[in-house]
């Protein structure tokens, strides 16, 4: 583990650097419902090793070696696609991608993943969501998709009312019991998994120390980093129990702002020592539990990076602090790139290029997909972004997929099973328990 000068890391994240890999999901850890199937590693044990000079790449390296430049660039994107089904014709898909269905977009551009939203027509009922996720995976037979959702519960619940109505992070935090954060995350993870969703953009790792914060507030577990950190760590374990990838957000911390990064560019004036004490502990705790991904924040922290760029575009923050100081080598995702906070200084193509240069691996919801993709291709062809740097990000994404059993074959969701698991008696019992313990 690469730790230099951040004392909090020694106590919050001692041990190995997170790689995104975790044990197979535990069976029966949450009462009621059906347990998730075990996640098998995509890279099976190999026979006796051949001499180094004749060994052939396998698993992640074999997939990486087989990919074209265009396919590698495609892996860096997670766009929103429109429609209730993979073959639904949508004018939005035509306008944004030049094809009329989600399936055709996936087949043409080979994105690394997609994210689902009700406002994009993706979430109507259980059987429809299952058919959509299965259809999207069928359109990407070579490398299965990450299919993501913003399912924090509470204030941010993109799959309501299909899923169990679990309390949000602030309610869970008020119980003072990290085991409840783990149980809530496992319930959420199981329900996502049976819908065909394999990555959640949760938990929120921000410490909400500004009572006027308009964008985090009850989405955080609390205002004390010593209490938030174990909640975040427990939630990561819960998602992994369910076999779903977890994302800690929003790095380097979005808790001390009175500006919403959806509509403006927040400036947080924490010194490095304040950041170590207030913002870093929950992220360090998540890394200590092998969190799969960490999402960047569209916030400026001038004492961490005086350039004026938001953290999403900041190499000193994403590479210097997150990768080199905290030792994280998993996937770094941007927050949504259609938010105003990241579009103040650069056009959409330049934003994509600068994000990758800063240390990002996954570009979430670019507002102009074709411009961003074209800018990245041009940057690699010109040497502005080296092929080795591109391979770093693609390798991390492929490792995440391998860790969740998605590299070689996407699981096929079963609508009948999804209907049994979602809002099952055991899951509703967990929600009632948490609410009963809230203070």
In words, what does this structure look like?
There is one protein chain. The chain is an alpha/beta fold. It is 41% helix and 7% strand. The protein contains 16 helices and 10 strands. The strands form 3 sheets. It has a 6-stranded parallel sheet with strand order 2-3-6-7-8-9. Strand 6, helix 9 (225-241) and strand 7 (245-251) form a beta-alpha-beta unit. Helix 6 (126-138) crosses helix 15 (415-421). Residues 1-54 have low confidence and may be disordered.
Write down the Rg. Answer: 20 Å
The separation of the N and C termini measures 37 Å
Element-level helix/strand string: HHHEHHEHEEEHHEHEHEHEHEHHHH
- Identify the quaternary structure here: single chain
Q: Report the uncertain regions.
A: 1-54
| Total number of helices | 16
Largest sheet: 6 strands, parallel
Helix/strand-derived category reads alpha/beta
What percent of the residues sit in helical stretches (DSSP H or I)? Answer: 40-55%
Shape: globular
Content of β-strand: 5-15%
Question: How many runs of DSSP E, i.e. beta strands?
Answer: 10
Mean pLDDT: 88
Going across the biggest sheet, name each strand in turn: 2-3-6-7-8-9
Brief overview, please?
The protein is an alpha/beta fold and 439 residues long. The chain has 16 helices and 10 strands. The radius of gyration is 20 Å and the shape is globular.
Properties at a glance:
439 residues; alpha/beta; 6-stranded parallel β-sheet; 10 strands; 7% strand
């Amino acid at each position: 583990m690469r730790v230099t000068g951040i004392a909090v890391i020694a106590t919050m994240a001692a041990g190995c650097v997170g790689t995104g890999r975790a044990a197979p999901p535990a069976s029966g850890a949450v009462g009621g419902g059906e347990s998730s199937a075990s996640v098998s590693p995509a890279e099976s044990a190999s026979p006796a090793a051949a001499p180094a000079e004749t060994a052939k790449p396998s698993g992640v390296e074999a997939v990486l070696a087989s990919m074209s430049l265009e396919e590698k660039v495609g892996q860096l994107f997670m766009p929103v696609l429109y429609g209730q089904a993979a073959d639904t014709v949508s004018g939005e898909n035509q306008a944004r991608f030049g094809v009329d269905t989600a399936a055709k977009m996936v087949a043409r551009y080979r994105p690394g993943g997609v994210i689902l939203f009700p406002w994009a027509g993706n979430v109507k009922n259980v059987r429809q969501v299952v058919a959509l996720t299965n259809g999207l995976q069928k359109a990407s037979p070579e490398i299965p998709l990450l299919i993501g959702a913003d399912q924090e519960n509470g204030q941010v619940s993109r799959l309501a009312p299909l899923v169990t109505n679990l309390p949000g992070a602030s309610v869970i935090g008020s119980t003072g019991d990290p085991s409840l954060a783990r149980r809530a995350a496992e319930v959420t993870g199981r329900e996502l998994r049976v819908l065909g969703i394999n990555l959640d953009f949760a938990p929120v790792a921000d410490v909400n120390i500004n009572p006027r914060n308009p964008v985090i507030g009850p989405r955080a577990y609390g205002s004390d980093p010593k209490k938030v950190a174990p909640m975040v760590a427990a939630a990561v374990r819960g998602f992994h129990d369910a076999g779903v990838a977890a994302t800690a957000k929003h790095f380097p911390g979005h808790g001390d702002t009175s500006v919403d990064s959806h509509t403006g560019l927040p400036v947080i004036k924490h010194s490095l020592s304040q950041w170590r004490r207030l913002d870093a502990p929950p992220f360090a705790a998540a890394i200590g539990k092998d969190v799969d991904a960490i999402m960047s924040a569209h916030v400026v922290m001038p004492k961490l990076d005086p350039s004026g760029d938001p953290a999403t575009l900041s190499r000193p923050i994403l590479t210097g602090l997150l990768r080199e100081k905290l030792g994280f080598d998993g996937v770094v995702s941007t927050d949504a790139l259609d938010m105003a906070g990241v579009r103040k200084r650069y056009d959409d193509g330049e934003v994509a290029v600068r994000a990758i240069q800063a240390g990002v691996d996954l570009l979430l919801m670019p507002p102009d997909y074709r411009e961003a993709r074209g800018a990245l291709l041009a940057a690699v062809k010109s040497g502005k972004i080296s092929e080795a740097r591109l391979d770093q990000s693609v390798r991390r994404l492929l490792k995440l997929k391998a860790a969740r059993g998605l590299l070689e074959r996407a699981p096929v969701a079963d609508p009948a099973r999804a209907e049994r698991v979602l809002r099952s008696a055991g899951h509703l019992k967990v929600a009632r328990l948490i609410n009963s313990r809230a203070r």
